[in-house]
Amino acid sequence: MFQVPTRKGELASTMPKATHLIKVASQAALQQRPFLNVYGTDYPTEDGTCIRDYIHVTDLVRAHILALDNLRGGGESRVLNCGYGKGYSVLEVVDAVKRISGTDFEVRLTERRPGDPDKLVAGVEKIKRDLNWSPSYNDPDTIVSHALSWENKLQTGSLLEVVGH
């Protein structure tokens, strides 16, 4: 994964051959992929798809900076979960990408992948308490909107002068 600064001084991620849902759904919405696979619709969740705790890259970076500042200030090393403590299903995220992009891209429902758990949501009490961290972008619409904007900038090449090419 590469962290690339935007014109606003924010960070966003780019990764060749990514498999992360928000990125690949954004690419499908921007016609960079012909379709999006959804792996499994038989989970014991409301819509049958996995639930995950999606996080905005800026919130993740801020958590890492707070952790580093804590260590530099003499704090102890520890393991802290980073997320929002709330999950969204795969289909909820896909619906958000379609709604925000205004694009009805093809979604293929396929078999679940071996080992995929039904639900992964971060327990965030410790990071909030120990590092006084709180998210700035804790809703899927904002995360999706920023991801779509980022993918569009990558597609159109409007980041080239920012990353020094």
Report on this model:
This protein is an alpha/beta fold. The chain has one domain: UDP-galactose 4-epimerase, domain 1 (Alpha-Beta Complex). Helix content is 37%, strand content 13%. It is built from five helices and seven strands, in the order E-E-H-E-E-H-E-H-E-E-H-H. Strand 1 (2-5) and strand 2 form a beta hairpin. Helix 1 (21-29) runs parallel beside helix 3 (90-101). The longest helix is centred in the C-terminal third of the chain and has 17 residues, at 140-156. The two termini are 18 Å apart. The model is unreliable at 161-165 (pLDDT under 50).
What is the SS-derived class? alpha/beta
Q: Please trace the helix and strand order, writing H or E for each element.
A: EEHEEHEHEEHH
Mean pLDDT: 88
CATH class: Alpha Beta
Helix count equals 5
| Assigned CATH architecture | Alpha-Beta Complex
Write down the domain tally: 1
Amino- and carboxy-terminal Cα gap: 18 Å
List keywords for this structure.
single chain; alpha/beta; UDP-galactose 4-epimerase, domain 1; three-stranded mixed beta sheet; two-stranded antiparallel ribbon; 5 helices; 7 strands; 13% strand; globular; disordered C terminus
Question: How do you describe this structure in short?
Answer:
With 165 residues, this protein is of the alpha/beta class. It has helices at 21-29, 57-72, 90-101, 125-131, 140-156; strands at residues 2-5, 11-14, 36-39, 51-52, 88-89, 107-110, 119-120.
